């Protein structure tokens, strides 16, 4: 992609407004928190204190709309605490420009590194920089600084209290995550009816797993309805694929294929019903037609062999899903001193060592997060110096725009820069016009600011340009409380926003962190993870008595994580104005399809893992050993642009087939696995023939 194309795409993405589900009640609750804090402070204090106090409630409300599985009151309190600390430290250093610039640089560097912990942590850290830049412009003493910091903390406390006192769909994000995973399984089952090779995006299952990670406090109050269906959904996916597959399941044509289609359709209906019940906390309602299909016909079984085993397993799992969901929606209070098992999520204090390990891992020059931290620190310091030198005042607007725009990747930084400027122009124009024609007093300005906050909370997910417009108008009205002139506010706001956005874009162009050159490394990581998943499944066939389901499960999770990392990097690389000289776009698509097929072939074998009493398979052991020996060299070949060699696994499979024939599930699954590896080798072949063949793939 050329620079002109990349810039056009970034502008188009930044100005796109999406239709999305709105949450007016939640938005009104967040705006109420801002209104309480601003109103009480304006009534009992001064306009300057009202402006300062608004930041705590505003940011605490903002973070509760982010995608996080932690309790919303905890998020509100955490961000308010961070804002209070950054405000107080900023006031202590504000007496000298050099000291403040040093503090600002160090704080911004640490805030940039916070993206290593997660996107919510990165957003919270970004907010602390913004409030440090803004509040220190309000003159005060050390005791006044303590008052400002305390008011900001109170804003978070008010938002947390409102969430507790006015709950809206408790456990709603967890319910939605689990319901989305089951709905994705239902959609997968429907697509398998017509396309046995249909692909499945595991992201909903990964989201549901993250949502199921609980702190000990959460585990004591989670509704039982959220406890069981996720594990069933995980076990359902390979069973659905195995039933539909024409090689390891029902034949491609005939009565068995018709029966398989009926079972898949009924499974989709049941999964949709379970998803609805979980989403709204109600009992499951199943259509009689689906229930009738999910029984063995009176005339006898239609399916045979592996397909019959998959069908019986499917019926049992769907029954488990309904039973787990149909339990009364009551709390999981521990009985007899024993808590229910759950995925552990560290509490906030125990998150500190986890965050420190993440920071230490990313504190290197080659890390995108590390480079982002250096880049944003340099830009914020430059923007603050430039804003101070310019005659408009409000020097913080330029660096604040930069820090709110900048992200560790190119696409988001440029699209947010365009959206920020466009939204700011619209927001200050509308707010400035109202200020010019109505000349509102402090209380009216406060009401208009709260209205803008409510609109921002309501429309936040429609696009960053809309959010920026609401924030720009909010700032104009907020400064109107303190008596700022509207004309000066508009002029400075637009000019310094443009300056901050241009600095952010220029910094990424001069000091980039391109994802495109690292595509082969991520592809090699995905190959390695998929290979380990295949080895875990083959190990269960080779030594059934030593089978450990946990090993297979952990290998599957690693493979999913590697696939997600690849897809995220490939998506970001599409927006970059650079080209990978060793990996064409057609080869990239073909390699991605081959590795997805490799994962699917392994999943099909996982659906037919033998019992512990089954006979060990020497052929599976020999094939697994050959594959394990070939994997490291293949991963290095992917990184170094060399040809992949799967000769040893082919020879082991040929010997296995000669010993056991072609009827075994493991043998046929291994054939599919090797076909995918051969396709990967073809797509990444360094010769022109391999590239051309890869390009002809649909």
UniProtKB/TrEMBL annotation:
Task: State the name under which the record lists this protein.
Answer: FUSC family protein
Stretches that traverse the bilayer: 74-92, 149-168, 373-397, 417-436, 443-460, 466-482, 494-511, 523-542
Family matches, as PANTHER family: MULTIDRUG RESISTANCE PROTEIN MDTO, P-HYDROXYBENZOIC ACID EFFLUX PUMP SUBUNIT-RELATED
Q: Identify the GO cellular component terms for this protein.
A: plasma membrane
Q: Which UniProt keywords apply?
A: Cell membrane, Membrane, Transmembrane, Transmembrane helix
- In this chain the Integral membrane protein YccS N-terminal domain maps to 82-190
Concerning InterPro entries, the annotation shows:
Memb_transporter_dom, YccS_N
The record's similarity note reads: Belongs to the YccS/YhfK family.
Q: Where in the cell is it found?
A: Cell membrane
The way this protein sits in the membrane is described as: Multi-pass membrane protein
**Domain (Integral membrane bound transporter): residue spans on this chain:** 384-506
